Prior knowledge:
Layout: H1 4-9, E1 13-19, E2 23-31, E3 37-46, E4 50-51, E5 54-55, H2 58-76, E6 82-87, E7 92-102, H3 110-117, E8 129-141, E9 144-147, E10 157-168, H4 169-181, E11 185-191, H5 192-200, H6 203-208, E12 210-215, E13 220-226, E14 229-236, H7 240-251, H8 255-265, H9 286-309, E15 320-323, H10 332-340, E16 344-346, H11 362-375, H12 390-403
Parallel strand pairs: 1-6, 6-11, 12-15, 15-16
Antiparallel strand pairs: 1-2, 2-3, 4-5, 7-10, 8-9, 8-10, 12-13, 13-14
Helix pairs in contact: 2-4, 5-11, 7-8, 7-9
This protein binds adenosine-5'-triphosphate and magnesium ion (MG).
Residues 20, 214, 216, 324, 363 line the site of magnesium ion.
Amino acid sequence: MFTKAKLRIQDPTIVGVELGGSKITAHVYRIQDDGNLKHMASACVQSKGLNRHTIARIEWLEESILNVLHTVEQQSKITIKDAYIVVPSGILNSKMIDNSLDLGGRVVTDESLRKLHDISSFINQKKDEEVLHVLPLRYSLDDLDNITDPRKMIGRKLNALIHVITASKSFLNNVRQIFSHADVRIKGIIANPYATGLALLDEESMQLGSTIIDMGAESTTISCFLDGVLMFFKQFPTGSHQITKHIARKLNLSVEAAERAKIQYGFVSADAALLAVNQPVVDGNLQRHISPIIMSDIEELTISMFDVLNQLDPKVWDRIIVTGGGCQMNGLSEFWSRGFRKSVRAEKNYQLSSPLHDLTLAASFGAIKYGLTDYYNLNTRHIIQPFLKRTIWQKIQHWFNEDF
Ligand SMILES: Nc1ncnc2c1ncn2[C@@H]1O[C@H](COP(=O)(O)OP(=O)(O)OP(=O)(O)O)[C@@H](O)[C@H]1O
Ligand SMILES: [Mg+2]
């Protein structure tokens, strides 16, 4: 249980930093003596040094990270000592592991679950991968299936289907190096799709089934939640910046001009794909030229996403939520809504707000929420939502809703 004594022992500052393809964001929140969260600072700087989610030039990445940390330190007047980091989908891998434990007729305890969740023997230590999240999807005990929490039950053999998310060790080590130069300890590393879900979904939406489509600069990621857990994610190489580059190339514009034109004139609709393109490009008809280029990328992406989602439990389709800068494209939500025959909503992070509150910031807010569960020893890396005591989860929701 959380007590005031515990609140005083730990540092009540929670810092979340998201490393994105186009921007690096940071937020600082503080848990006050009465248990409520207070927003202290937020900053967003251009992301330099990352190229399609690999580190292209470490000095530039370091400069961007130092810049964002410095800005939030100045705003909040707090010296940042530690932070939760959200890492991009491009450095992640995902695997399903079926693990089992002989119980010999004994009762399932926390210790049995710890043993069952120990997947180290499935990870090739020689490979460049580090485990970020161990997410048990469901358990079976002898011939009983689909158990969400097997503790206190007795049986002979306990099985778990576990979703394991790993990240590139070399990427993480280089990021660690940057933060250690800044004298900031990394308290936790969170996969972007997981952090986005934490920020955008309430417990019920995670339980019943939801899919988030996050269209960023370098890529689009779908993350699917069911039974309270991130059960699947996949990254597609089409991001909004790729669309900009296609516009620049096809219309012979600079990347800056293409980006401006995309945001000003770009719209997505099935009819847009049919617009004529064989006319000279002048400002007035730029839209006729831009929309077919956008549509060819969006259609290809939509078909790839559809093929993947179609293989999953239909319940994950029940709610489709779009986020990320690319999803601000006019008409995109409506296009997907018609294409997927589902209601698709553009979701702002309804659980937190700050001066920088907008569609593109979900993942960094997820880091704050993750930090909060860590603060109360509800560490989501090993034992996650199904085991969060409902009252505590509700209290966390209550803080976010009440305070802003
Ligand atoms: N109104 C708009 N219409 C179309 N695209 C937009 C709009 N506003 C922003 N974008 C695009 O959103 C992208 C940035 O999105 P976002 O901030 O989610 O990226 P990121 O999180 O930094 O990148 P990634 O998720 O790839 O790591 C840019 O490529 C930008 O062109
Ligand atoms: Mg992003």
